[in-house]
């Protein structure tokens, strides 16, 4: 349920609504708007509540939110969420478009630094790199662990770029958060609810990737876990879903981007690297993602993709990344003028 306060309502009116709710064991979340305040109500809502609230001073309207996710629903927010990343305060959402780029996995100091320099030069704002890697086979390279986090932090010092890296286990959240500017929750962990609870308690942004068999509702309910645990700095990431096609690793669900913007106020990023699994398709799908309104892209880039320890087939060379960036810029520029 949401309570929309009238434009002329006072702070006392808002407080009275809050008191009414807390006396009934409910929580009121205030979203201050430029014109009027909106109060989101969480908890077990009883039939008479709507009437009670409607008659209170300063209340303009009371609406029921029928969606199972609340904090993550569009109705609960007063506008699109902007997430601020790192000390550099890189902004994403509400028209702020950014690119996260870097290797799938951190492999060595030279690899990370060279990639960070190259992607920064081409206009990426955030450096990506996995130190804890979820791999389908236990025999594949599973990442450098904390040593990898240290290399990412060195690259941040050298370039000034904030860093995003995956956290796989609830017990690793504090360690990863002590290095990372954004925590990444991978597709395979989208419904790891203990991990979501832990990451929700961290005062740093979280990128929540869509599980490859998750509906939009499942995905937004996972975002709700993060938000209900206190973290409002959530970025969603569409990374392709499983279909019957075998030529591509996954199928990029471009529908998801405008659909999520209809349902939800959080920024949504597209990951055409995992969404296609094959590098010649990455640039076309990056361009398409920008065209359908993605708030950003996350792209795998490697100094020498054929030598990569993971996801080489979908990694762009520095040169291909530069081309992708200028094509994306061209499409965004054209749309801004249309
Ligand atoms: C990754 O970003 O390298 C990754 C493992 O992504 P996903 O969780 O989408 O498979
Ligand atoms: Mn990868």
Describe the structure.
With 338 residues, this protein is α/β, with parallel strands linked by helices. The protein is built from eleven helices and 14 strands. The strands form three sheets. An eight-stranded parallel β-barrel has the order 7-8-9-10-11-12-13-14, surrounded by seven helices. Strands 2-3-1-4 form a four-stranded antiparallel sheet. Strand 8, helix 4 and strand 9 form a beta-alpha-beta unit. It starts with a strand and ends with a helix. Manganese (II) ion (MN) binds next to loops.
Class inferred from helices and paired strands: alpha/beta
Number of strands: 14
Helix content: 25-40%
Arithmetic mean pLDDT = 96
SSE string, helices as H and strands as E: EHEEHEEEEHEHEHEHEHEHEHHEH
Radius of gyration computed on alpha carbons: 21 Å
* Lateral strand order in the biggest sheet: 7-8-9-10-11-12-13-14
Q: In what range is the share of β-strand residues?
A: 15-25%
Output the number of helix runs: 11
* Contiguous uncertain segments of 5+ residues: none
Sheet with the most strands? 8 strands, parallel, barrel
Cα(first) to Cα(last) distance is 37 Å
Shape: elongated
Provide the list of bound ligands, each named once. Answer: phosphoenolpyruvate, manganese (II) ion
Blueprint of the fold:
Blueprint: E1 2-5, H1 11-23, E2 27-31, E3 38-42, H2 49-54, E4 59-63, E5 83-85, E6 90-92, E7 98-102, H3 109-121, E8 126-128, H4 146-159, E9 163-166, H5 173-179, E10 182-185, H6 193-200, E11 206-209, H7 216-228, E12 234-238, H8 256-263, E13 268-270, H9 272-276, H10 279-291, E14 296-300, H11 318-337
Parallel strand pairs: 7-8, 7-14, 8-9, 9-10, 10-11, 11-12, 12-13, 13-14
Antiparallel strand pairs: 1-3, 1-4, 2-3, 5-6
């Amino acid at each position: 349920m949401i309570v929309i306060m009238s434009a002329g309502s006072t702070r006392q009116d808002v407080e009275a609504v809050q008191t009414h709710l807390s006396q009934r064991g409910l929580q009121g979340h205030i979203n201050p708007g430029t014109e009027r305040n909106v109060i989101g109500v969480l908890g077990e809502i009883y039939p008479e509540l709507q009437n009670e609230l409607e008659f209170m001073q300063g209340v303009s309207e009371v609406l029921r939110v029928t969606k199972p996710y609340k904090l993550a629903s569009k109705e609960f927010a007063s506008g699109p969420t902007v997430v601020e990343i790192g000390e550099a305060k890189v902004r994403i959402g509400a028209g702020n478009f950014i690119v996260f780029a870097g290797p799938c996995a951190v492999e060595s100091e030279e690899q990370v630094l060279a990639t960070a320099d190259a992607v920064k030069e081409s206009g990426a704002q955030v450096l990506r790199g996995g130190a804890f890697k979820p791999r389908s086979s236990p025999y594949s390279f599973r990442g450098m662990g904390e040593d990898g986090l240290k290399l990412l932090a060195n690259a941040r010092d050298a370039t000034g770029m904030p860093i995003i890296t995956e956290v796989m286990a609830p017990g690793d959240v504090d360690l990863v958060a002590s290095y990372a500017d954004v925590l990444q929750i991978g597709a395979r962990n989208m419904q790891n609810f203990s991990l979501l609870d832990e990451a929700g308690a961290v005062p740093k942004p979280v990128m929540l990737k869509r599980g490859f068999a998750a509906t939009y509702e499942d995905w937004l309910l996972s975002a709700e876990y993060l938000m209900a645990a206190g973290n409002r700095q959530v970025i969603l990431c569409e990374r392709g879903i499983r279909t019957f096609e075998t030529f591509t690793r996954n199928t990029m669900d471009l529908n998801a981007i405008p659909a999520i913007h209809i349902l939800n106020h959080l920024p949504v990023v597209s990951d055409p690297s995992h969404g296609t699994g094959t590098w010649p398709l990455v640039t076309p799908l990056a361009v398409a993602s920008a065209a359908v309104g993605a708030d950003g892209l996350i792209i795998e880039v490697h100094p020498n993709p054929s030598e990569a320890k993971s996801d080489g087939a979908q990694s762009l060379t520095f040169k291909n990344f530069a081309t992708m960036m200028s094509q994306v810029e061209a499409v965004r520029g054209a749309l801004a003028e249309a």
